[in-house]
Each structure stands twice: as structure tokens, then as C-alpha cells.
Amino acid sequence: GENVEQHPSTLSVQEGDSAVIKCTYSDSASNYFPWYKQELGKGPQLIIDIRSNVGEKKDQRIAVTLNKTAKHFSLHITETQPEDSAVYFCAASRNSSASKIIFGSGTRLSIRP
Amino acid sequence: EAQVTQNPRYLITVTGKKLTVTCSQNMNHEYMSWYRQDPGLGLRQIYYSMNVEVTDKGDVPEGYKVSRKEKRNFPLILESPSPNQTSLYFCASSLQGSTDTQYFGPGTRLTVL
User: Which of A16, A50, B34, B106 is the least crowded, having the fewest Cβ atoms under 10 Å away?
Assistant: First the structure.
């Protein structure tokens, strides 16, 4: 079945440094790739997404890149701050009558002061 | 305030005792879904609904039932809970489908003894 692999499972970076989280997907028909941030005790919230017709998208300190050929997409956070500490999930889905969403296993990001 | 609500937030029960977790959204969203979150496994979709009276299986539907009699409500039913259903459950909704922003509820922590 469809699968999304996410790496690393944990990541610790110094405040101010950059963080990168990577995901690969198996379903070549996937065309929507969101990233969600989950803070402690809360439900996940969308932070950025990308569709298959673009290769990169930026929103202030956050960017996502997509390589459809390699079936690979990544989240980049620059100038990390303490409030970036959270669990991050990537996901993949496609427009079809069977409209499932497949999430990665999550990355726990810790920002060291 | 636009939101997804779940009840109860915490539940401890025993094996075999039927239970229902309610989910309601006030955003007039068509798509609703249930996920379970387990350490190391990320978010796994249980069931989803594209609209009233339209439901479909996600990746882990065994042991669960859902119904969508009204647009705003999407209850999750465990007819005979077992310990392997101990998990953190999230309900989510989106405007039309899996390629729209998912709005998650606060979560329900279920323990089955």
C-alpha cells in the first residue's frame, strides 16, 4: 500500500541554526504534500503545503521543496527559535475518489538554547 | 470560533465495553476523518467521510465504525474495545477533501484495560 517515510525521528539543533526534515512517498499519483506541526497536548496544525505543480514554496522562515522524480520532499526551517520545538509530520495525498491521507511517522524537533 | 470539538478528552474503559467518541465541526466542512496516533507510527487514518452518508476506510479501520448522518458530526464507535486500541485519537475536518487543509480537534486519549 501507499507509504510515507520520514527522517529523522528526532532532531536537536542549536537556536539560530537550520533544521531539515525529509520525507519520501511511494504513490506516484500523490499531488499534495502538507506539513503539520504538533505542539505538546494539542492537535496538529498545518504550517505549509506544496502541490505537485511547483518545486519550492516559502513562508518566512519555513520552506518546502519537492522532487517529484525522486518522490521526495523536505521541510526547511531557518533561524530556529525555541517556539519551533514540536513534533512535525509530513503527509501525502491525491485527488481521487479514494481520498486518503498518508502521514509520516513524525519528527520531534528540539531547539537548544 | 471555528473549531473541531471532541468528547470525551480522556477515557479509561475495559475490554468489550462499547464506547463512542464524538466529533463535531462548525465550519460547514464536507470532509471529516479520524486518526489514531501511536509512538513511532505517526498519524494513521482510520475512516474518512467525503459527505453525509458517504464513508470509507482509511489504513487501519479494523475494530472501528463511523457514521455521518449530519454534516457537522462524525462519531467514532468502538463496539468491543481491546487493549490494542489504547491510543490518542484525533478527529479532523477540511473544506472538501484530503487535499485541503485539515483542521484537527484537541484529541481523545483512550485507555482500554
Answer: A16
Report chain A (113 residues): mean pLDDT per 10 consecutive residues. Answer: 92 98 95 96 96 90 96 97 98 79 96 94
pLDDT tens, residue by residue, B89-111:
999 999 988 889 999 999 999 99
- Looking at B1-113, which runs of residues are DSSP E strands? 4-7, 10-13, 19-25, 31-38, 42-51, 54-57, 65-66, 76-78, 87-94, 103-104, 108-112
Contact A103 B56 (CB under 8 A): no
Q: With beta carbons under 8 A apart, name residues in chain B contacting A31.
A: 99
**Residue B83 phi, psi (nearest 5):** -55, -30
Closest CA relative to residue B111, chosen from B72, B91, B82, B90 = B82
Contacts of B107 in chain A (CB under 8 A): 41-43
